[in-house]
Each structure stands twice: as structure tokens, then as C-alpha cells.
Specification:
Layout: H1 11-22, H2 28-35, H3 39-51, E1 71-79, H4 84-96, E2 100-105, E3 112-118, H5 121-132, E4 138-146
Helix pairs in contact: 2-3
Length: 158
């Protein structure tokens, strides 16, 4: 039997998501008031969006420099071979490293982009030499320092 397709998002769902992507810590009462919904309806809709996996999680964002990790970089990783299980193992290992903010498995010349925040250049070097190039399928790396990072407008910007 084919898997049922999830119902499409309606204007109320999109309104809820637009507010929550800007203000994840808004109370249900304030969210309902902003969207002119009953509080119970709003709470039900948010819960349904979570259950459907549309809202994957809610996180706080830290100022990396304020907590002692002012240096950010993107480490490009190129692989020598691309066997499925080895790629998956490396992906998991990269994502599990302390100071790694995000890992992208990408197409093109590079295979992974690893976004890190560290305390200094020595710590950056250590991540590359002790935790990335030690994997047998890694052919090479290239590190780019991040001077500044800005958020984009997001998925629901109008």
C-alpha cells in the first residue's frame, strides 16, 4: 500500500511557522493573539506540526565568541573513495566532533563542508589533523576562515 502523502500546509500553518522561525520562544498565548486564533487551536496546530515533522526542533543559538569560540571556519573535505558505509561512517564522525556546528554532504569537487567554531588557530589545526585527516577515506582538506556570518531571510520570508 503506498504511503499517504502529508496534507499540505495551509495559511494558518504557514503563519504559525513564519512567526516561530523569527521568535521560537513566543508563548502560545502571544502566538495565538498575533495570528487571531483561539489558544487551544494554536496549541493543537503547533503540536500537529511537530508530530508531522514540519517543526523538527527548537534550539537556542549561542554567540560563539561570547562562550569562548570566536574563530569560525569551513573545512572542505575531499574523499579518496565513496563507498556508502564509509561515507556514512565519516559523516557521523564529523557531526559528532566537539566544536562542529554543521556538516554538509555536498556534490562537486568537495564531499563535505564542516562548519566549526574554535578558540584559536591551534584548535582549528587540531580538528583538521587529529580528527579529519586521520580517516582513511579522506584525500584532502582545505580550510577557509569565516570573517562574518549573517542569517538569510529564511524559507517563509515574503
Amino acid at each position: 500500500m503506498p504511503k499517504a502523502q502529508p496534507s499540505p500546509l495551509d495559511e494558518v500553518d504557514l503563519g504559525i511557522l513564519a512567526v516561530l522561525t523569527r521568535e521560537a520562544d513566543i508563548t502560545n498565548k502571544a502566538l495565538a493573539h498575533r495570528l487571531d486564533l483561539a489558544e487551544s487551536t494554536c496549541a493543537h496546530r503547533v503540536r500537529a506540526l511537530r508530530e508531522r515533522g514540519v517543526i523538527r526542533d527548537t534550539r537556542i543559538r549561542l554567540d560563539e565568541a561570547a562562550v569562548g569560540f570566536p574563530l569560525q571556519a569551513i573545512i572542505k573535505v575531499r574523499l579518496a573513495n565513496h563507498t556508502g558505509p564509509k561515507v556514512t561512517t565519516l559523516f557521523d564522525a564529523l557531526a559528532a566532533l566537539p566544536r562542529v556546528l554543521q556538516v554538509f554532504h555536498v556534490a562537486g569537487v568537495d564531499d563535505f563542508l564542516v562548519h566549526v567554531a574554535v578558540q584559536d588557530a591551534t584548535a582549528l589545526r587540531d580538528i583538521v589533523l587529529e580528527h579529519i585527516t586521520t580517516h582513511p577515506i579522506v584525500r584532502g582538506t582545505e580550510t577557509q576562515l569565516v570573517f562574518e556570518l549573517r542569517d538569510g531571510a529564511g524559507l517563509l520570508a515574503r
